[in-house]
Specification:
46% of the residues lie in helices and 17% in strands. By secondary structure, the protein is an alpha+beta fold. The N terminus is likely disordered. It comes from Mycolicibacterium frederiksbergense.
Length: 494
């Protein structure tokens, strides 16, 4: 009887004492048997599919000597599992030339005694195959039960891949789309797991979606990679390593694991959608400066971080796919983040803002970091993050409010609009008058200091300023006029 989960082999057949088969040359006792064929043809090879036990009495071979070599060679090419020669009819004993040819071509050979019918051999193989099929089905059913039960554990993905690794007698690993290990490798052969190569396969598979799969064949090993998920982009990838010749039950185990992990992923996604909805509401409340209600809503999400006393807001813009990747990155950091007003919005501790923003930039988003503020003043932090975001460009994807403050109010004005304003507001002033006006503003309206810096008489300075003032929309003593003049001069493309 063959072992559960393995194929029926030549060794299993020869081990049947009731048949009395005698091994003559057994090159590989572990050769799988697919079926039994009986033939008295001089060349039965064209009628074989491979893996058969060929039974013959050698009716057409009574006078053969050298002819046995071509006969066996053709059978070797047809990949027979073994040749069984019936003794006592055409041949009284095993022909030495046949045995020699089987040794040369590495074909299994055994004797079938006169009292053993070919039907008995065929019936026994059929019984072994049926037992093997039933055993495989029972083992597959048990494996499916273990995989389904694993999905109810505290950490379903880890439990499922652990059960799968045992089922394939190898190793299994769960990976993120970027090749990062989520769980594993687990299993009796985890030390042989080609982690870096499989991570590269996973990264290549990202663009192919849920319909992709990859495989590698190595001496005595096979590796398969399957995307996990029921819809949208794959959330994870299952990589499995087992023996080069896996049984049907082992292949079914992989298929079952992919299906179970897909259901687990769907449940996880549903919970993630609910958590994101809660966190979106929290962000809305913070923007409305209702931190007390925001704290209460956060208690609905047991996985959410506690709201800190001081926060920095991060506002990020980009494609929907990049925002989704950014949210996943923030969730891995256990940061409060949500999609809000077509942006990604996050509220983090001030000391965590830079690292979180760097991850969002890595996800392809442009990011503005707001001022560090008390939680009850969250609306101001959200607003300053938005102003910082407006200053980002594809070349400068991250801007902080601190930098905006350092650069003054001009950092908040679009350069093209500022230049247009400057040209219009200073129209009519020549370069000498503009330099005089700039010096006047620099010295806070002190005509004496302007005269000293430019080396002019005070009356000359007064006359110049009167002429300048006549061409401006307001008086130079007016603070609004001075502010407009300063902005215009700073915005000139000179």
């Amino acid at each position: 009887m063959c072992k559960t989960g393995t194929m029926v082999t030549v060794g299993n057949l020869l081990g049947a004492r009731t048949l009395g088969l005698r091994a003559v040359h057994i090159d590989r006792a572990d050769t799988d048997i697919r079926w039994v064929a009986t033939s008295e043809l001089r060349d039965p090879a064209p009628f074989l599919e491979g893996g058969e036990i060929l039974l013959t009495t050698g009716m057409e071979t009574r006078q053969w000597h050298a002819e046995w070599d071509d006969y066996v060679r053709r059978l070797a090419d047809a990949a027979v599992a073994a040749v069984g020669l019936g003794i006592g009819l055409t041949h009284a004993k095993m022909p030495t030339e046949l045995a020699a040819a089987c040794r040369r071509h590495r074909v299994n050979l055994f004797e079938v005694p006169r009292q053993t019918t070919f039907v008995a051999v065929s019936r026994h193989v059929a019984q072994l195959l049926q037992e093997q099929e039933s055993a495989t089905a029972r083992e597959a059913f048990k494996t499916q039960g273990r995989l389904i039960a694993a999905a109810t554990k505290a950490d379903p993905p880890a439990a499922v891949i652990a059960a799968l690794a045992q089922a394939v007698d190898g190793a299994a690993c769960l990976m993120a789309p970027d090749g990062r290990v989520i769980s594993g490798p687990l299993g009796p052969r985890r030390a042989d797991f080609p982690l870096e190569e499989i991570a590269a396969d996973v990264r290549r598979m990202q663009s192919y979606g849920l319909r992709s799969a990859a495989g590698q064949s190595r001496p005595a090993l096979s590796v398969s990679v399957h995307p996990i998920g029921l819809r949208g982009k794959p959330s994870t990838y299952l990589a499995t390593m087992g023996s080069a010749q896996q049984s049907d039950g082992q292949r079914q185990a992989v298929t079952t694991a992919v299906a179970v992990l897909g259901l687990v992923d769907e449940q996880t996604r549903s919970r993630a959608i609910s958590r994101r909805q809660v966190r979106t509401r929290v962000i809305e409340l913070l923007v409305e400066n209702d931190s007390r209600t925001a704290q209460l809503v956060m208690e609905v999400d047991s996985l959410a971080p506690a709201l800190p006393a001081r926060v920095r807001f991060l506002r990020a813009s980009g494609s929907a796919a990049d925002i989704d990747d950014g949210l996943a990155a923030m969730e891995r950091r256990r940061a409060l983040a949500a999609g809000y007003a077509d942006e990604l919005c996050a509220a983090v501790k001030p000391e965590q803002a830079q690292a979180a923003a760097d991850e969002l930039v890595a996800a392809g988003l442009q990011v503005g970091i707001g001022d560090a503020i008390a939680l009850h003043d969250a609306a101001n932090g959200y607003r300053t993050a938005g102003l910082a975001l407006t200053q980002t460009t594809p070349a400068a994807m991250l801007v902080t409010w601190d930098r905006v403050v350092d650069h003054g109010p001009l950092a908040l004005i679009d350069p093209q609009r500022a230049a247009a304003f400057a040209e219009s507001w200073l129209r009519g002033l020549d370069s000498e008058q503009r330099e005089t006006l700039r010096c006047f503003l620099r010295h806070h309206g002190s005509r004496l200091k302007v005269a000293e810096e430019l080396g002019l008489h005070r009356n000359t300075v007064r006359n110049r300023l009167d002429a300048i003032e006549a061409m401006l929309p307001g008086r130079l003593d007016d603070p609004q006029t001075r502010v407009s003049a300063w902005i215009a001069l700073q915005s000139l493309n000179e």
